[in-house]
């Protein structure tokens, strides 16, 4: 049975009141493939557009989105994140790799917050770079790991996802 469907087959929020409060973490990753015209605009690993510093703005936007995930995803519980960290790097292959890690002491996990943070950071990069080109691809959004709760999860990370090749 799906967790967000009740016995009467109606959508519902999961009741977490009986769960133990534990430390829960999540790590999500997304890749942004930029066309050559945008890659050429990088100077010393940084990209600035008329809208401002791209990576720094994306970090702020991703953090704000992670904190507001419950406002976007209908059955996510509102939680106060203890930590949210976004790292954005220009990989050796020229793609942008965004990692979002989240942590909370709570009865429910933070996977959706990490995924939302990574997604919005990628969308912010798109928004800030679209004046240079619309040929931007956001790809490979995935949960890399989670801890706490019923079970832990760790994805198999390929060399491409590690940013070593494409």
Task: Please characterize this protein's 3D structure.
It is a single chain. The chain is an alpha+beta fold and 166 residues long. It has a single domain, classed as Molybdopterin cofactor biosynthesis C (MoaC) domain (Alpha-Beta Plaits, 2-Layer Sandwich), CATH 3.30.70.640. 25% of the residues lie in helices and 29% in strands. It is built from four helices and seven strands. Strand 6 and strand 7 form a beta hairpin. Helix 2 runs antiparallel to helix 4. The protein is elongated.
Write a brief caption for the model.
It contains 4 helices and 7 strands; from the N terminus they run βαββααββαββ. By secondary structure, the protein is an alpha+beta fold. It has a single domain, classed as Alpha-Beta Plaits (2-Layer Sandwich).
